[in-house]
Amino acid sequence: VQLVESGGGSVQVGGSLRLSCAISGWTYQSYCMAWFRQVPGSERERVATIRTDGPTAYADAVQGRFTISKDNAQNVLYLQMNSLKPEDTAMYYCAAAPPEWTSCTLDAAYTTWGQGTQVTVS
Fold first, then answer.
1. What is the largest CA-CA distance in the chain?
2. What DSSP string runs through 50-90?
3. End-to-end CA distance of the chain
4. Predicted local distance difference test score (pLDDT) of residue 72
5. pLDDT tens, residue by residue, 11-52
6. Chain-centre distance of CA 63, in angstroms?
7. Does 110 score more than 90 pLDDT?
8. Is the pLDDT of residue 81 over 80?
9. Closest Cα to residue 30, out of 97, 113, 106?
């Protein structure tokens, strides 16, 4: 299984970015995926989760500004980020959990990770 993120970059305060995570080698039909972010020296933060059959969840800090979605036909996970703030600056990672995990908000479930893409808001 391989996850490859793209779409990061530098953006002004109030701007938007869309992150993508290309998924390969994963044949399960129903499973959890998530976006996490991490700033050096801080703990990793779960930003948004989605189960491939629909339900989503967001951290309070991004609720109403970020949208997680997945194109099941193309096998790509997205994170649309609007109204970006300086505190959104971080390395963003996509992650996947094996199908036996039914709770998408349990961080320990995520065992497959991408390499990360940097987002800088200034």
1. 40
2. EETTS-EEE-TTTTTTEEEEEETTTTEEEEEE-S--GGG-E
3. 34
4. 86
5. 999 999 999 999 998 777 778 999 999 999 999 999 999 997
6. 13
7. yes
8. yes
9. 97
Alpha carbon distances (Å) from 57 to 3, 24, 61, 122: 20, 24, 12, 26
Residue written as tokens 């989760």? 49
Q: How far is CA 67 from the centre of its chain?
A: 9
Q: How far apart are CA 19 and CA 29, in angstroms?
A: 22
* Share of the chain residues as helix, strand and coil, in percent rounded to the nearest 5: 5, 50, 45
State the Cα–Cα distance between residues 14 and 86, nearest whole angstrom. 9
28 within 8 A of 95, measured Cβ to Cβ: no
Beta-ladder partners of 67: 80
**pLDDT score at 27:** 75
Residue 100, pLDDT > 90, answer: no
